[in-house]
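Hey team,

Sharing the Aminotransferase class V run so nobody has to redo it. Sequence (385 residues) first:
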Amino acid sequence: MQDKNMLMIPGPTPVPESVLLAMAKHPIGHRSGDFSKIIAELTANLKWLHQTTNDLLMLTVSGTGAMEAAIINFLSPGDRILVGNNGKFGERWSLVGKAFGLQVEEITAEWGKPLDPEVFRAKLAADTAKTIKAVIITHSETSTGVLNDLETINTHVKNHGESLIIVDAVTSLGAVNVPIDQWGLDVVASGSQKGYMIPPGLGLISVSQKAWKAYENAKIPKFYLDLKAYKKATDKDSSPFTPPVNLMYGLQVSLQMMKKEGLESIFARHARLTQATRAAMKALGLPLFAPDEAASPAITAVMPTGVDAEAIRSTMKKQFDIALAGGQDHLKGKIFRIGHLGFVGERDILSAIAALESTLQTLGYEGATPGAGIAAAASILAKVG
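Structure output:
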């Protein structure tokens, strides 16, 4: 049916109607006093969401652009960095680092498994000469549905003393607790089309005082992504270049919605939806790709047996207009991923699971009792409060 498409992918995520309506307003001058007031409100509310008093900067880029800015503003060619790689995005940050001439050392884990903090501890503890300049971590590895133990890894980075920690929080910010000031995170990057509940196009980045000190010695060339220019403008409630005015209208409304819901409620909602989705998959006999103890609040990856993952996705799209994500690289065709990030509620999860159950019957899957997934999810969702 036309205009009934339902996004159950890790991004772009569904956008609230009030946000869409705000974005439909006529743009105003981005150098006007009225728009300066919007920037001031956005900055304050973004700091609230990030749980930080650090500089909070808005860039007209995707999450990848924000991460590139996080890397090139604080490092120099030849610098030694550690990159956690247990999925597509950890792999990407290694490639970005190498593209800018950094000495990249990967700490890897099998896709679908979390990074081992102990490996980071040992590597950092052995660096008595303090040559490791940064540790780069993907907090929520969207390609596999794994949430890495950022808090513990960060503790080891702090014990090192010299190294910065640079965090890809693209699908964790706004979905799970990321207390930037409490943990002392140096650089945290994210993207608008995830937990922020607006379309793609804005990159957000938090920068600590320690990171700004590193900036003074960083030698990688930059212009459009020079974060000092963004800080100088943001301090005056402005922007260094033309910003996406209408996206920022939307962000203004989505942040107001998030403040009304409250941080703890946002995190609890994402945890509840994650648990309900995983319980449903287990009840349907569909193996989960990531372990329960490292489950991402943004996405649940499923590796079905007895039924083809791409057939599931295709049927869900054709029959129900529900979009699920597929696997990447060597996981293509082997897993499907159910997004439960941002503007997603209990009704969405139950609808998706019901459609999945129907899809499994259509495809001749005999591994589950009809209704088992819905019953399992409903039992989790009934425990509200």
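The radius of gyration is 21 Å.

Ping me if you want the raw files.
A.
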